[in-house]
Amino acid sequence: MLEGCTPWPVELQKEYVQKGYWQEIPIGDSFDRAAANFANREAVVKGDIRLTYAELQQKVNRLAFQMLKSGLKPKDRVIFQLANSPEIIYAYFALLKVGIIPVMCLAAHRQHEIEYIAKHTEAKGYIIEGNPDLLKLGIEIRNSVESVEYVFVNGDPGESGITSLAELLEAPVDEGTLADSLAQHKPDPYEVAVFQLSGGTTGMPKVIPRTHNDYLYNSLQGGAYCGFTMYSVYLATTPLAHNFALANPGMQSVILVGGKIVIPTSHSPQDMFAVVEKEKVTFVPAVPAMIVNWVNSPLVKEYDLSSWEVVVNGGAKLNPEVAQRVKPVLGCRLQQVLGMGEGLNTITSLDDADEIVFETVGKPISPGDEIKIVDDDENEVPMGSVGELICRGPYTIRGYYKAAEHNKTAFTAEGYYKTGDMVRMQKDGCLIVEGRKKDLINRGGEKISAEEIENLILGHPLVKNAAAVAMPDPVLGERTCAYVILKEEGKFDLEDLKNFMIQKNIAKFKLPERLEVVKDFPLTSVGKVSKKALREDITEKLKMESQI
Ligand code: J2J
What is the pTM of this model? Predict the structure, then answer.
């Protein structure tokens, strides 16, 4: 495995192969198998663009070949920042096919995040979406990060001089040379396929190395729980760059069994329902805010949504009252998945009773998953009690990339990943998420590290101390509230704070949405800032305000 990664113990690797979890093939082989089996079936649809498996495979192969020809090599890292589009799908499989490792960044990331991640992964390349903002960023990153030599854009490069993916796809190729080259550059299935980014509780996101063996297993196993087949039609409503829609259970799970990916051209409920009707969508992934939006939309009745079989909620807890309205309003079944870039997925089954689907996130997807619910001393709590979920298994990482110090606290000595999620197990083995231990804000599924925000705020000359906490929100679940102590009394409002943070070129979803200037912070018994007391304070304030 790439230097800086922690492999599974050798004995377990053998066991995972012997039990059939790890197929010992690269993801590209599995993709080629699907492309051969389903050559004339539709694989990807967006608006008027419709690609069959054979067409998709041709694009994947050409792009893979051109990436190598450009100078990129297997195991090189490429910052991958594409919006939902057919291109994100073929660029993803193209890189995996020849062992170039995409670093899956979010479309919202800006220089603050990308520069750090590019330096940390020593990225050689950067593939960006073709909008003016990101084109500018592409040039800045090429100038500021020494390792970045190659920048590609999905769309019009304008005057930037950056090569477009379309140019690469249209370049003439000799088919024989292409086939030879791809055959020579098949990656080792034990090697890293994808770098995902952690929601991050400390400073900047941590880099998650997912191997071909484990990522393939994860996406197929999760996909089986969702009932994916060649007849599945999956609507990519959430970002395909994120672990959820990308693979677990997501686009990769569907493509590898011959299903179809439909990419919406807009996210309004109206357009989303229209595309479900038109493309006879069967399966939709969602974060809670989307489901809230859909079940409350009066437009539901105007469309024929009869093809829609399942909506799967992930990323954040879905309010049980909303969960109950899914079937009566949308006409489809609900599934719930607890997932994480680091690996473990638990999911409700399609035939689970209503109470299970409304209240729980089901059970782990693999018989190889080992989970424990523990107290602060890593002792298992009694059945039914709340504790931290820790896990290890055939698709859960053993360490973040180049993070030896952090790994000592993020994993137990036995190699369990400490999820930071506080859960309870029912007698039937289903898990209920009760809260979390980790210091982050879960804004509608997008994770914001409190520490990162605090460090940014502390850079403001007027600020003496800062604490970022989650405040409840009826739609997104949580938003960021910044508590601040000023150095001296003066004018400092939310706009001042946001303007200051925007200058730091951070992803917009990280901007605090409320500011509370205080004289001091409540402390815990050991003298730390009590985030719990701050969360209670803002919750109380919001409650009072809503009653006025
Ligand atoms: C409560 N909290 C949840 C849920 C994730 C599928 C789905 C989601 C992700 C994801 C993913 C939750 N209820 N149903 O990778 O494959 C919170 C937990 C978890 C963290 C991981 C997938 N589903 N969460 O959201 O890496 O706190 O992955 O530890 O972004 O999201 O976040 P992330």
Answer: 0.96
